[in-house]
Design brief:
alpha+beta, four-stranded antiparallel β-sheet, 8 strands, 42% helix, 29% strand, transmembrane, membrane
């Protein structure tokens, strides 16, 4: 039951992000300096949406003799396209945010990690392609399979996973569209 609640809440966040995107607004960006992280995934996400639309059209043609199945499949396929676009929108409207005392590291509607600036021991631009397995105490938030900024912390911060498991992390790697600008701002902060 808890998993169903988490998934429903996540889908509502995605749909809310889509509404923000259509209204050209951001979520939490007004709190400080915003740093985007969605530029690298736009083509991939819209390519996926395009493939979903083609699948929707082909399925409609194949199921035209069974109208009930065609309508059900059409509804599911349209919802899938909306969710794919909403997933990209959530990355656009939820940027990383740097305030006077915190760096808010985000990835779409999945991750929102607040790192106090006084816990950052080192920050650097480092382009990496993380593997599928993360070491204990490390968090990789790749976009299109790549991270561009690495934070090393003096003491761990708690990251809550998608399904609610809490784990301490001492190294955070994430992607930023302009990593040099973000690294310089964190160092000044």
């Amino acid at each position: 039951m808890r998993t169903t609640y988490v998934l429903a809440r996540h889908e509502l966040r995605l749909l809310g992000s889509l509404a923000l995107w259509l209204g050209r607004r951001t979520h939490g960006g007004g709190e400080g300096r915003a740093f985007g992280h969605a530029r690298g995934q736009g083509a991939t996400m819209f390519g996926l949406a395009f493939v979903c639309v083609i699948e929707l059209l082909c399925t409609s043609v194949l199921l035209r003799e069974w109208p009930t199945a065609e309508r059900v499949t059409l509804a599911v396929d349209v919802y899938t396209v909306v969710l794919v676009v909403a997933l990209h929108a959530s990355s656009v409207v939820r940027p990383h945010v740097l305030t006077a005392d915190t760096l808010r590291v985000r990835r779409a509607a999945h991750v929102d990690l607040r790192v106090p600036l006084d816990r950052i021991a080192a920050v650097r631009r480092e382009t990496r392609t993380p593997g599928s397995r993360q070491a204990d105490g490390e968090l990789d938030l790749a976009v299109n399979g790549q991270t561009s900024v690495t934070l090393e912390l003096t003491e761990p911060v708690v990251h809550t996973t998608f399904l609610g498991r809490r784990r301490p992390v001492r190294v955070v790697r994430f992607h930023a569209d302009e990593p040099d600008r973000l690294v310089a701002a964190v160092r000044r902060g």
